[in-house]
Design brief:
Number of domains: 2
Distance between the termini: 39 Å
Strand content: under 5%
Helix content: over 70%
Structural class: mainly alpha
Number of helices: 8
Shape: globular
Low-confidence stretches: none
Largest sheet: none
Order of helices and strands: HHHHHHHH
Number of strands: 0
Radius of gyration: 19 Å
Oligomer: single chain
Length: 188
């Protein structure tokens, strides 16, 4: 039963989200936490791990959740579930896109989807920021002055500056991992 539930859940996530893994994040967050497959903190931790490992985010999270809940068969079901809708949709789109790519309706749909994807990614970002910086979602000055918050905020700011300076993402991930380990030993 868990295998069918994993397949169905990740199939619907793959079918109803556009724009890649990060656009899927709000729906993944809702479904995974709703089914008690992962806590919000575990999900945020996995997002960080997924960013430092090869492969698409959606496949990584589906495989991880599937493994945690149903072992290797669960991983296969969840991964197939998240990949199959994209495979089917891209076959259909490829068949008809060239014929209709100059259509104003198709251009309008693509324009609207791009805006929606940015909104979904922003919502996911704010949800993760709240979990990372405010573990108990208590946004107060007392929490903002805690060493863990300040350390996370400094790491976030420094990594943002390094990213804007076009430093290699591999170096940024390495520096942020080292800084996180150091802060963890000092403050946690």
């Amino acid at each position: 039963m868990i295998y069918l539930e994993l397949f169905y859940t990740f199939f619907t996530i793959g079918l109803f989200t556009f724009g890649g893994g990060y656009a899927m994040l709000p729906m993944i967050q809702q479904k995974v936490v709703e089914h008690n497959w992962l806590t919000m903190e575990e999900l945020v931790d996995f997002v960080a791990i997924s960013e430092s490992t090869p492969g698409p985010f959606a496949i990584n999270i589906a495989t991880y959740v599937g493994t945690e809940t149903g072992g290797v068969p669960g991983a296969l079901c969840a991964t197939l579930g998240v990949v199959l809708p994209s495979f089917i949709v891209i076959l259909i789109v490829a068949k008809f896109y060239l014929k209709f790519k100059n259509s104003k309706a198709v251009s309008g749909v693509m324009y609207g989807l791009r805006s929606a994807v940015v909104g979904l990614m922003a919502a996911a970002l704010f949800g993760m920021l709240a979990t990372v910086f405010f573990h108990n979602v208590d946004v107060s000055w007392a929490n903002m002055l805690r060493p863990e918050f300040l350390c996370s905020a400094v790491i976030f700011a420094v990594m943002t500056v390094l990213a804007l300076k076009k430093l290699s993402p591999i170096i940024i991930i390495g520096i942020s991992a080292a800084a996180g380990i150091l802060c963890g030993y000092i403050f946690l």
